[in-house]
Amino acid sequence: MKKYQLIANTIKERIIKGIYPQQSFLPKQEELAEEFSVSKITVKSALDLLEREGFVYKESGLGTKVLSNLILLGQHDSPVNSFAGLSAENGSDRVSSKIIKFEVAFPSADLCEKLNLDENDPVYEIIRLRLLDDEPLVIEHTYMPVSQVPALSKRILEGSIYSYLHKKLHIKFGGVFRRIKADLPDKYDRQYLGANESTPILEIEQIVWTNSGVNLEYSRSRNLYSNRSYIMVETSH
């Protein structure tokens, strides 16, 4: 986890505990930079993250204010525009992965279209159960071109794929298209998430591309409707 994410998490905990009350102003960026022994740029990145997640609001010329809408925030809510991944959002010490399927195959016609591939370009087909504090949370169905993600292994899949992409392969994300929808459970949801035949499932379908415009990932992340929701914050600036 990057420094600005650690700082954001610390400030978030203080907000939740009431150390920084709702509608109060946070300490100035200079003070936070001194406290955490980082640059003002790092603090700004942390505050930008908190603003995207709906914890604070920057008032021009006044400072950063704690918002009063936190009653809507659930324990496992995730920002819909997050690029961080589950491990970065919750802490790698709390998140673990069970590999259900890990194979290399040729893509279907539909997958070729989603990832801009030729039918002879092999892809990783990955199904993982992600656990938070050893409790099942999300099932991820992920497809990535082998040519773009070399040497992917079970050891990497047991941790954070995104960490491997960023730190080892030095891949930077350029953007993501996401669609959120409700669905009925499939066999994996019933077996690994404990869903019954009619339990509503929330699914995020996404295509992630790199900063050079290459489609890197097509995935579907599925969870019980009661276990996780997604938040979006819009501001006027």
Automatic annotation (TrEMBL):
Matches recorded under SUPFAM superfamilies: Chorismate lyase-like, Winged helix' DNA-binding domain
Gene3D superfamilies in the cross-refs: Chorismate lyase-like, Winged helix-like DNA-binding domain superfamily/Winged helix DNA-binding domain
Entries under Pfam families matching the protein: GntR (PF00392), UTRA (PF07702)
Keywords, alphabetical: DNA-binding, Repressor, Transcription, Transcription regulation
Span of domain HTH gntR-type: 1-69
Single GO MF annotation: DNA binding
Domain of life the protein comes from: Bacteria
Keyword Repressor: yes
Protein name: GntR family transcriptional regulator
